[in-house]
């Protein structure tokens, strides 16, 4: 007998938010708690339930050809309900917060749960280490004082019951929250007019956003963190498309974005990059602007993963089960660190599953010090009651050479604004392919001599950051969602493989 | 099955529908499907779909939003409510279940779009969003008015659904898992020096319901299905003199705008021995480093689709040409003035590319686009000449000079698309087809006719931010005297788009055409993603530059 079996449940009449609409542009802490309680009440049959919610507002203005194309105001709730019984776990994603929707989501999770293997599953295992009553996993753990059970479930007691302490950076700025359409227009108007005065075309994007990151569950966590984000970037091109300049940055606090200066940089880059000439592909001493450093260094930060390295995957793998921790991986000037309290970085102190970000120095003076792991790994393998997740946000430090000095000390080399279309072609060596974009110049005898055509490149960030000559002072660059503070860098033997005609 | 599945589904769902109100309460009813172990009745998704998209309540929401937007002073308004239901299962891990319902309103005032969207779908919110959208547009248009006409189009009314034979959402999760489990044991296990990766596989289903009203009086709803998954058998052998591995794989099923019937038609169980055999054959083929040089290249339909996607599919988006995407996805080598190359040759005379949003099973297939235009098939490249661009109502006017020369009306080609109501509709590529030629009827035949060259059988291609230059790599083999020879490792095709399509010397005939889905297409700020399908024959290209892809400068 066949029965239509899929439980997506909502009918038109169930759509109403049932008085659960937030008072402001996104759910407040109180509203999120009330929402979680409703989810908890719908969950039956024991086990645990968790809510992971991102509730957000975003306002944006998009311009191109010196016009505003569109302006938008967007509110979203994106949540998942995770159910975990006897080590089987499932997660269901939804965006409706009305009672019918919530119940449907929980029911779907519970229905899937019946098909899941016990102690198999996925999501929860990452975050909670289920402990059998004989306590077999407890032998190596420390910090037992924080492991008191609160679930009251005899079959399952969770090792991780209390909330890890986390830092509380100030990430919510009214200046960003108040950046509505009129304020965004006010910010971009002079920039567009400046580009138009030069008979250039400006295209760009301003976005302001405010979110609540929510993690609440029956193991006792009740995390809510409000934060704002703002970003601005623009590309200035001439009417014939023979020159292109770009500049951009993101900050939690809009007032830290100097849009006029960025526009001036993009305009100058456009003017100075016009009618580029061809030069031979090959290996060049290269001055990378901070944005270019960020673009090409991102794969290194993404690869800071302990379990996969110990499994033998990626650039930080040694002979399994060992990683390269303790070994020199980059030039000894380079230090890579991340701290949610860093006033120039600042990111929510836990991820969207509640994993707490602790301050960390990944690489110190070129030596790999840490790789990221989650709390169960810390408890099981390292005897520490905390995880070391990687937020993707970081600071690179180790120098204070100005870009002018880098250029003036270069006999022949290239100056790169940024990279585009970057992808990793060989993960173990982090060999990357991509293109230079929006401003590439030849340096001759200590001076920028001419604009040159863009290159396709094939290079590993591990190689060039071992061929480092100097680092500049770190500054915030454009990397929405992953606050990044990096310096400019002068490297040698950067491999540019072929010319491209794209401007 | 004597009773057709659809009619059966309809009958049984009526039973369920009758108990819907109670069905949601756990423990009160027993589902026949799961016998006594079941505590919940599963309320059908399939039949409720129609109920949602066609329901009076949803219609009332979008109509109210449009009315409020007009009253607030917009010259054009469209409002939509969308629901997306996605489910995916793979073995053991990576299950996905997602449902999203969102309402969005777009308003046009003096050439500027305003947009507002939220998940709270009630009448009060409809009015609020409409006013917010109008106010966003008004504020900006007071400073930056644009002189843009959206044109007038016939009113869109009614409901349309992707033609499907078997609603994939009526295939229970248990059945889908059983289907996946039935493949276990059919593929060989690892042996020394060989590593097999068996991903047989996963099932991914999605259903998008959209109800849209426009201020011109259109009120229409669509239910769009995509069914697919990954059914792949891959084998890896260790490369000679290389630390890396060499991988070959066979593929079972492609995602398509269709229902569960694509799984039944694919007959995966019987495909597996063939896939295994193919992989084994490849693993025992000799592997050689590529000799850098210029070669005659035979590209499979898959590779041809990749080449077309990364070059002309992007480059003929009129918004890219005009620079709207300069700060995001990039611009186009066919710009910045769209008139510059219109009418002139951008490829060999054997190259004809058409767009069609009614392509059966195409991922870009739809009855109406997202601003009420009923798309008609159109030609982008005619016998090597660029004759048109992909357009929306906003962008079509930029070609009015060209259209008047051609005695064609200024009309959008219906390329407006928003994956859901949380993103503003934008120009996205429709399904594309490369017209067949008088060439071979299969790639094999084309290879047999080639004395010396390279066969580019599978892999990926990509281009820069203007789609000018690109590279392609993956599975290439040398061709000698009409036969496939060694596998070439690290071989990489390097091309410029203009040169590539001018080097076209043979296009496979209509029997050689294959259809496939594209990789996700990303553009816009905030990022938007879309998919379409491409129909391509195998092609032969002369003098293609082949380089060593892993070799640094």
Please tell me about this protein's structure.
The complex is a heterodimer of chains A (503) and B (553). With 503 residues, chain A is of the alpha+beta class. Chain A is built from 11 helices and 21 strands. Chain A has helices at residues 29-42, 99-113, 123-127, 174-177, 181-197, 259-272, 290-302, 306-311, 375-382, 403-408, 461-464, and strands spanning 48-64, 67-85, 88-94, 130-131, 157-158, 200-217, 222-238, 244-251, 282-288, 335-338, 360-364, 367-368, 394-397, 412-426, 431-444, 447-451, 455-459, 468-471, 475-476, 484-486, 489-499. In chain A, the strands form 4 sheets. Chain A has a 6-stranded antiparallel sheet with strand order 3-2-1-6-7-8. In chain A, strands 12-11-10-13-20-19 form a 6-stranded mixed sheet, covered by helices on one side. In chain A, a hairpin with a 2-residue loop joins strand 1 and strand 2. The longest helix of chain A is centred in the middle third of the chain and has 17 residues, at 181-197. Residues 1-13 and 121-161 of chain A have low confidence and may be disordered. By secondary structure, chain B is an alpha+beta fold. Helix content of chain B is 25%, strand content 32%. Chain B has a 6-stranded mixed sheet. In chain B, strands 14-13-12-17-26-23 form a 6-stranded mixed sheet, with helices on one face. Chain B has a 5-stranded mixed barrel with strand order 11-18-19-21-27. In chain B, helix 4 (56-71) packs parallel to helix 5 (123-143). The interface between A and B is large, with 106 and 104 residues. Strand 3 (88-94) of chain A pairs parallel with strand 2 of chain B.
């Amino acid at each position: 007998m066949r029965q239509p079996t899929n439980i997506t449940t909502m009918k038109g009449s169930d759509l109403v938010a049932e008085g659960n609409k937030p008072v402001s542009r996104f759910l407040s802490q109180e509203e999120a708690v009330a929402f979680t309680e409703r989810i908890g009440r719908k969950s039956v049959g024991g086990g645990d339930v968790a809510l992971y919610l991102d509730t957000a507002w975003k306002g944006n203005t998009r311009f191109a050809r010196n016009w505003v194309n569109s302006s938008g105001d967007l509110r979203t709730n994106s949540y998942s309900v995770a159910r975990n019984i006897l080590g089987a776990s499932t997660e269901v994603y939804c965006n409706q917060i009305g009672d019918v929707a919530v119940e449907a989501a929980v029911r779907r999770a519970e229905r899937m749960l019946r098909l899941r293997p016990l102690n198999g599953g996925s999501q929860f295992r990452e975050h909670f280490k289920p402990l059998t009553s004989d306590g077999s996993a407890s032998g190596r753990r420390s910090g037992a004082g924080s492991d008191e059970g609160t679930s009251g479930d005899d079959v399952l007691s969770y090792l991780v019951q209390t909330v890890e302490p986390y830092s509380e950076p100030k990430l919510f700025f009214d200046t960003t929250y108040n950046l509505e359409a009129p304020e965004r227009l006010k910010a971009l108007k002079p920039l567009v007019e400046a580009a138009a005065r030069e008979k250039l075309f400006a295209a760009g994007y301003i976005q302001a956003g405010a979110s609540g990151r929510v993690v609440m569950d029956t193991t006792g966590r009740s995390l809510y963190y409000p934060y704002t984000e703002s970003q601005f970037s623009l590309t200035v091109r001439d009417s014939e498309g023979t020159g292109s300049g770009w500049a951009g940055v993101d900050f939690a606090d809009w007032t830290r974005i100097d849009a006029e200066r960025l526009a001036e940089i993009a305009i100058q880059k456009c003017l100075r990059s016009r009618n580029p000439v061809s030069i031979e592909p090959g290996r060049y001493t290269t001055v990378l602007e901070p944005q270019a450093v960020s673009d090409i260094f991102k794969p290194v930060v993404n690869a800071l993963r302990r379990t996969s390295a110990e499994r033998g995957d990626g650039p930080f793998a040694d002979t399994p089960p060992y990683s390269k921790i303790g070994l020199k991986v980059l030039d000894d000037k380079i230090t890579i660190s991340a701290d949610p309290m860093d006033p120039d970085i600042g990111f929510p102190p836990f991820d969207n599953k509640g994993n707490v970000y602790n301050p960390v120095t990944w690489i110190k003076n070129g030596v790999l010090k840490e790789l990221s792991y989650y709390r169960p790994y810390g408890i099981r393998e390292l005897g520490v009651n905390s995880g070391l997740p990687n937020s993707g946000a970081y600071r690179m430090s180790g120098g204070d050479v100005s870009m002018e000095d880098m250029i003036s000390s270069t006999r022949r080399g290239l100056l790169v604004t940024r990279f585009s279309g970057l992808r990793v072609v060989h993960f173990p060596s982090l060999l990357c392919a991509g293109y230079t974009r929006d401003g590439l110049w030849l340096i001759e005898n200590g001076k920028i001599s001419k604009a040159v055509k863009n290159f396709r490149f094939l290079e590993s960030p591990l190689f060039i950051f071992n061929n480092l000559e100097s680092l500049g002072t770190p500054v915030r660059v454009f990397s929405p969602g992953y606050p990044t503070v990096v310096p400019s860098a002068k490297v040698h033997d950067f491999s540019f493989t072929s010319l491209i005609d794209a401007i | 099955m004597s009773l057709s599945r659809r009619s059966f589904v309809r009958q049984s769902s009526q039973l369920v529908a009758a108990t819907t109100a109670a069905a949601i309460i756990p423990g009160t009813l027993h589902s026949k499907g799961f016998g006594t172990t079941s505590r919940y009745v599963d309320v059908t998704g399939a039949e409720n779909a129609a109920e949602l998209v066609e329901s009076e309540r949803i219609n009332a929401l979008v109509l109210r939003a449009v009315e409020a937007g007009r009253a607030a002073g917009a010259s054009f308004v469209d409002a939509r409510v969308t629901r997306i239901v996605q489910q995916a299962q793979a073995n053991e891990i990576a299950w996905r279940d997602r449902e999203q319902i969102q309402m969005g309103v777009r308003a046009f005032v003096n050439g500027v779009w305003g947009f507002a969207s939220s998940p709270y779908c009630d009448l009060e919110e409809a009015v609020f969003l409409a006013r917010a959208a109008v106010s966003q547009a008004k504020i900006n248009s007071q400073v930056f008015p644009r002189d843009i006409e959206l044109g007038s189009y016939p009113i869109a009314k009614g409901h349309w659904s992707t033609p499907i034979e078997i609603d994939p959402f009526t295939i229970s999760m248990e059945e889908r898992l059983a289907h996946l489990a039935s493949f276990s044991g059919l593929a060989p296990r690892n042996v020394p020096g060989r590593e097999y990766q068996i991903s047989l596989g996963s099932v991914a289903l999605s259903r998008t319901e959209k109800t849209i009203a426009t201020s011109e009086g259109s009120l229409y709803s669509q239910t769009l299905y995509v069914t697919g998954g990954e059914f792949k058998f891959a084998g890896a052998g260790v490369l000679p003199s290389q630390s890396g591995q060499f991988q070959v794989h066979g593929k079972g099923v492609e995602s398509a705008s269709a229902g569960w019937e694509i799984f039944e038609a694919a007959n995966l169980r019987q495909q597996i021995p063939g896939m295994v055999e193919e992989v084994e054959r490849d693993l025992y083929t000799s592997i050689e480093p590529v000799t850098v040089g210029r070669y005659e290249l035979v590209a499979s339909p898959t590779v041809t689709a990749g080449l077309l996607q990364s070059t002309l599919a992007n480059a003929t988006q009129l918004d890219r040409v005009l620079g709207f995407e300069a700060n995001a996805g990039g611009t186009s080598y066919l710009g910045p003035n769209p008139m510059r190359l219109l009418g002139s040759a951008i490829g060999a005379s054997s190259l004809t590319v058409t767009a069609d949003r009614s392509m059966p099973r195409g991922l870009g297939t739809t009855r109406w686009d997202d601003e009420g235009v009923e798309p008609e098939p159109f030609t982008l490249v005619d016998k090597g000449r660029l004759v048109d661009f992909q357009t929306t109502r906003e962008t079509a006017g930029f070609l009015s000079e060209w259209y008047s020369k051609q005695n064609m009306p200024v009309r959008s080609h219906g390329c407006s698309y928003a994956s859901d109501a949380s993103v503003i509709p934008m120009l996205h590529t429709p399904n594309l087809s490369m017209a067949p030629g008088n060439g071979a009827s299969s790639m094999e035949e084309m290879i047999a006719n080639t004395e010396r060259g390279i066969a580019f059988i599978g892999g990926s291609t990509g281009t820069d931010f203007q789609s000018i230059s690109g590279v392609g790599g993956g599975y290439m083999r040398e061709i000698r005297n009409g036969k496939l020879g060694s596998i070439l490792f690290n071989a990489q095709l390097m091309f410029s788009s203009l040169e590539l399509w001018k080097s076209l010397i043979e296009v496979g005939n209509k029997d050689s055409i294959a259809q496939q889905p594209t990789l996700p297409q990303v553009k816009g700020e905030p990022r938007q993603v879309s998919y379409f399908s491409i129909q391509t024959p195998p092609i032969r290209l002369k003098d293609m530059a082949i380089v060593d892809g892993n070799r640094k400068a």
